[in-house]
Amino acid sequence: MKYFINEASLEVFAFSDDGSQDDWIPSDVRPMTQFEIEKHLNPDPTPEQLAYAELAWRDEQMPIAQQTVTAIEYGEQDIPGTAQQWQKYWLDLRKWKSTNPDFPDSSKRPVAPA
Question: Are 29 and 4 in contact (CB under 8 A)?
Fold first, then answer.
């Protein structure tokens, strides 16, 4: 595909590479760069998508933290960290939501005990 953009309206047009649609290419567009094409086809996630992904991650991690605390309390030996560290992790996970100033920056997620 060949991609073109109208810089005034930001409309994107795609045409066949074989030239069969070249007569339809408007005169007020320019060819897009490879970088622009990649950004158009693979846009950055929206803030809502980032928040959804972080909440899904948190919801996945919370039961793991609770189960790990229980396992440690029942004497499981091969688990890194202490029950208190895992409890703190679980509490930090509870706070990992939109009211947290670092949310939804995944680089600032709570970190499980290691």
Answer: yes
